């Protein structure tokens, strides 16, 4: 995914818009248990601020993932906004190297930068819906489809004597 910022960089206070789309399946090996179900669409607004370029972006894609509760596959949509600062290497000061993206040519490869934004936005655990009941810890049935009726109330054996305490009164 490449963006040519030559026109924006040479035009102080200039702005350009870019609409990009690319297949990111090559990055799937870096994501465990996650695969891209749609191409990645990126909408960028690049503005020249004089010493740097301010990039406002929106990323949209879909993933095929497994629910952490019921272990069913489902499609997880991603729609995120991000803000980034790009600095041409000839204008980059040392203190800005760590907070800004430094580029050397007018044609900037941004695939890694976009992938980084996607990874930062992904949850630690995917849940298919807030109402997901997950798997029964006793019999293993998916409780979203079947009500098994298993007794899932487990009492810690160290506290079992306390369970009898309320029955004595």
Question: Would you write up a description of this structure?
Answer:
- The protein has 169 residues and is of the alpha+beta class.
- 15% of the residues lie in helices and 34% in strands.
- It is built from 3 helices and 8 strands, in the order βαβββββββαα.
- The strands form 2 sheets. Strands 2, 3, 4, 5, 6 and 7 form a 6-stranded mixed beta sheet that branches.
- The longest helix has 11 residues, at 111-121.
- It is elongated and about 80 Å long.
- The mean pLDDT is 85.
Order of helices and strands: EHEEEEEEEHH
Helix vs. strand class: alpha+beta
Mean pLDDT: 85
Computed Rg: 25 Å
Spell out the blueprint of helices and strands.
Elements: E1 2-4, H1 6-10, E2 15-22, E3 35-36, E4 40-48, E5 53-66, E6 73-88, E7 101-103, E8 107-109, H2 111-121, H3 160-168
Parallel strand pairs: 6-7
Antiparallel strand pairs: 1-8, 2-4, 3-5, 4-5, 5-6
Report a brief summary of the structure.
The chain has 169 residues and is α+β, with helices and mostly antiparallel strands. Helix content is 15%, strand content 34%. The protein contains three helices and eight strands.
């Amino acid at each position: 995914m490449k963006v040519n910022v030559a026109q924006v960089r040479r035009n102080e206070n200039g702005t350009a818009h870019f609409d990009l789309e690319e297949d990111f399946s090559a990055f799937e090996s870096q994501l465990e248990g996650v695969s891209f179900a749609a191409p990645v669409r990126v909408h960028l607004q690049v503005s020249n601020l004089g010493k740097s370029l301010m990039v406002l972006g929106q990323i949209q894609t879909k993933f095929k993932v497994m629910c952490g509760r019921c272990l069913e596959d489902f499609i997880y949509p991603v729609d995120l906004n991000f803000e980034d600062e790009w600095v041409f290497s000839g204008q980059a000061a040392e203190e800005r190297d760590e907070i800004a993206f430094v580029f050397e040519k007018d044609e900037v490869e941004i695939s890694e930068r976009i992938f980084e934004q996607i990874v930062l936005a992904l949850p630690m655990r995917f849940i298919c819906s807030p109402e997901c009941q997950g798997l029964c810890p006793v019999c293993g049935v998916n409780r979203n489809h079947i009500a098994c009726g298993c007794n899932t109330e487990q009492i810690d054996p160290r506290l079992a004597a306390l369970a009898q305490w309320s029955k004595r009164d």
